From TrEMBL:
Localization: Membrane
Membrane topology: Multi-pass membrane protein
Family recorded in the similarity comment: Belongs to the ERG4/ERG24 family.
Species this chain originates from: Pycnoporus cinnabarinus
Name listed for the protein in its UniProt record: Delta(14)-sterol reductase ERG24
Length: 458
């Protein structure tokens, strides 16, 4: 592996890659718990909300659960060679598309070694190609051509988890080579922790950057294809049509992915790319969690064929549209600004570090307006499933916890970057995610998170 597009300034390896002195996620025990917990939860959300196991949640018979977990054949049933080959075929397709499809090369942000990575922009055309091929298959063979995804769900999950494990392990081992630029948070020396959080900042094979590739292509596009496959499964059962609730989930989530891929360069200013290393946390999140957990609502609607009617459809559509508006304009304002443009003439403050921080527009209302928009959309994706089970709301609850925690991590990172300027900004913009209204959640709850995550290694 190499980071060939990186030009390094003359610094010793320990100056460039200082030891990580602060743990996140409750340190090594927390990292181990999440490393095991994410795959377990991905399976649990399948078995805990599935037609095959009898409901959402199914009636729990402890004796049956124990019998399954202690039987070798049950464990073997998680694996399926055909599903694994299909998954590998899908992954290979996205890699081939990255190489073959044309795309501009754009610079990432300046890294702390003074270099900039170059990224090829063709995630959107990869999606169009994948959708074109899918449409051709559906046109030729009908919706039953994709229903294998519903049948082989759990085996595809296994394949995706194994892929993330292999990549995270490979990247962890490769990060020990001479000259690798490590993530500031991933060099603690504890293998379990560094493997989870990501030791190397930008593992690459030549000009192929694994982190940004995995972030946008094999998982996100697969999520849409899975939703389409669920709509096909429903259509087969209903004689060709799908419910309005399925249309909403399919439309909202496809739009979200389209938007992310269309605005591909915007991810190069996000925390995942600029700050986090590529370890098991991102690998399993990108490859297994996103496609197989985020599509739970579509899978649920396969056997719970809810018709919402025009009023509920319009209301839920409105929630998603509002969320999208906030999410897109907030991310757009920051992305423009970070790329030297300020078309709305927004106010900003100058920091001693040289960077400027927006103090009006969305970033003047709260410190993470983009998270607020994202959360509203998450709610709109669950509402079409009705209220007969809380499990289809798992995504909103999990996402709120993730974003509150992420906001804390970003706050800490910005405090390190900007020092007293960050305090000044926080005085100007006191609200974290939701301006004013939900102060209990903003102040008390995240205070609790502070206590939970904010302890030092030294
Ligand atoms: P953000 O895009 O919110 O970026 C945070 C960075 O923005 C800070 O580190 C800082 O970096 C810069 N910044 C902070 N305040 C200001 C300001 N006032 N003016 C200008 N720049 C500022 O971080 P994320 O990577 O967390 O989120 C990106 C998007 O991805 C969000 O919309 C989020 O909702 C979404 N997301 C989605 C997930 C999913 O699973 N669907 C998971 C996680 C995120 P600097 O100053 O160094 O530029």
């Amino acid at each position: 592996m190499s980071s060939s597009s990186v030009s390094t300034s003359p610094q010793t390896s320990s100056e460039l890659n200082p030891r990580t002195t602060h743990y996140e996620f409750l340190g090594p025990p927390g990292a181990l718990a999440i490393t095991i917990g994410v795959p377990v939860m991905t399976y649990a959300l399948y078995f805990g909300c599935s037609e095959q196991t009898g409901g959402c949640p199914p009636p729990i018979d402890t004796a049956v659960v124990v019998e399954s977990l202690t039987s070798l054949s049950w464990w073997k049933s998680l694996w399926d060679t055909q599903a694994t080959l299909l998954y590998l075929g899908w992954y290979a397709f996205t890699v081939a598309a990255w190489y073959i499809l044309p795309g501009d090369w754009v610079d990432g942000t300046t890294m702390r070694n003074g270099g900039k990575k170059k990224y090829k922009i063709n995630a959107f055309s990869t999606m169009l190609l994948a959708l074109g091929i899918t449409s051709g298959v559906l046109y030729r063979y009908g919706p039953q051509a994709l229903t294998f995804v519903y049948d082989k769900w759990v085996n595809l999950v296994t394949a995706a988890i194994l892929m993330s494990l292999v990549q995270a392990l490979g990247c962890y081992l490769a990060s020990f080579r001479e000259g690798a630029l490590l993530a500031l948070g991933g060099n603690s020396g504890n293998p379990n922790y560094d493997f989870y959080i990501g030791r190397e900042l930008n593992p690459s094979i030549g000009s192929f950057d694994l982190k940004s590739f995995n972030e946008l292509r094999p998982g996100l596009i697969l999520w849409v294809l899975i939703d389409i496959a669920m709509a096909c499964e429903q259509a087969v059962r209903r004689g060709g049509s799908i419910t309005d609730s399925m249309w909403l989930v399919l439309g909202f989530q496809s739009w979200y992915v389209f938007d992310a891929l269309y605005n591909e360069p915007a991810i190069f200013t996000t925390m995942d790319i600029t700050t986090d290393g590529f370890g098991f946390m991102l690998a399993v999140g990108d490859l297994a969690w996103v496609p197989f957990v985020y599509s739970l609502q579509a899978r649920y609607l396969v056997w719970n064929q809810i018709e919402l009617g025009p009023i509920y459809t319009a209301l839920i559509f409105g929630v998603n549209a509002l969320g999208y508006y906030i999410f897109r304009t907030a991310n757009g304002e920051k992305n423009d600004f970070r790329n030297g443009r300020n078309p709305k003439n927004l106010q900003y403050m100058q920091t001693e570090r040289g960077t400027k921080l927006l103090t009006s527009g969305w970033w003047g209302r709260c410190r993470h307006p983009n998270y607020m928009g994202d959360l509203l959309m998450a709610l709109a994706w669950s509402l079409p499933t009705g209220f007969s089970t809380p499990i289809t709301y798992f995504y909103v609850i999990y996402f709120a916890v993730l974003l509150i925690h992420r906001e804390r991590r970003d706050d800490e990172a910005c405090e390190k970057k900007y020092g007293k300027d960050w305090h000044k900004y926080k005085q100007l913009v006191p609200w974290r995610i939701i301006p004013g209204a939900i102060w209990i959640m903003d102040v008390v709850w995240t205070g609790w998170f502070d206590a939970l995550i904010g302890f030092s290694l030294l």
